[in-house]
Write a structure and sequence with these properties.
The chain is an alpha/beta fold. It contains 4 helices and 9 strands, in the order βαβαβββββββαα. The chain has one domain. The longest helix is centred in the C-terminal third of the chain and has 18 residues. Pfam families: Peptidase_S8 (PF00082).
């Protein structure tokens, strides 16, 4: 795994077929740990996304927050359990991050919001009951249309980021932990740029210690 690499590495990916279950080995996460240790590099990984419709309950309730603690259903996606990586979840988009709808619809209700966990994010714990994700950043939320309707994504509740899908397009609006993770990677890169002699462990520690704690 030896590679000359000084900049923090962003991994906005996850295997939706493999939500983490306690005590199950994850070879990819172990390989990332070994890579980060050997190369002394900061790796930042997205926690993984849940499909909005996974939050529809039998009685039509849309209280998704309790489902984020359901390890079997909403666990991290491999390789987000990497012990040496910073794992990032998503918060609702800050006001003004998404696109404005051409017209407002009275039956479109936002689910989640600024400072709240996004209904799209997955959560830990990680291996050996590690706190995962350690950090969260704005990644967008969702809306529902009408009573009993399923959740869906909407441009007005997404965030602006790089477009990695369509050739020739630079920017895209979307939602999920893949949009939140680069914000943390950028913060780590700024710490390292200001202090090039720091180890990866020190950069991770400084990023974590500078995070704001939401107490609401």
């Amino acid at each position: 795994y030896t590679l000359i690499c000084e900049e923090p590495i962003n991994l906005s990916l996850g295997d939706s077929r493999r939500p983490y279950l306690p005590d199950r080995p994850t070879p990819l996460a172990a390989a990332i740990d070994e890579f980060a240790r050997v190369n002394d590099v900061v790796v930042v990984i997205s926690a993984g996304n849940m499909a909005p419709e996974q939050h529809v309950l039998a009685d039509g309730d849309f209280d998704y927050t309790t489902r984020l603690l359901d390890q079997g259903d909403a666990g991290l996606l491999d390789p987000a359990t990497s012990a040496l990586a910073l794992t990032v979840g998503a918060l609702g988009a800050d006001e003004g991050q998404g696109l404005r709808e051409a017209r407002s619809l009275v039956d479109v209700l936002p689910i989640g919001g600024p400072g709240l966990p996004s209904p799209l994010t997955r959560a830990g714990l990680g291996a050996a009951n590690m706190i995962k994700p350690e950090l969260a950043a704005p990644g967008g939320h969702a809306v529902r249309t009408g009573l009993g309707a399923r959740l869906r994504e909407a441009p007005s509740t997404g965030v602006l980021g790089a477009d990695g899908v369509h050739a020739g397009r630079v920017l895209a609006v979307g939602a999920g932990t893949s949009y939140a993770t680069p914000l943390v990677t950028h913060a780590a890169a700024r710490v390292l740029a200001a202090n090039p002699a720091l180890s990866a462990r020190a950069v991770r520690a400084l990023v974590l210690s500078s995070a704001l704690i939401h107490r609401s």
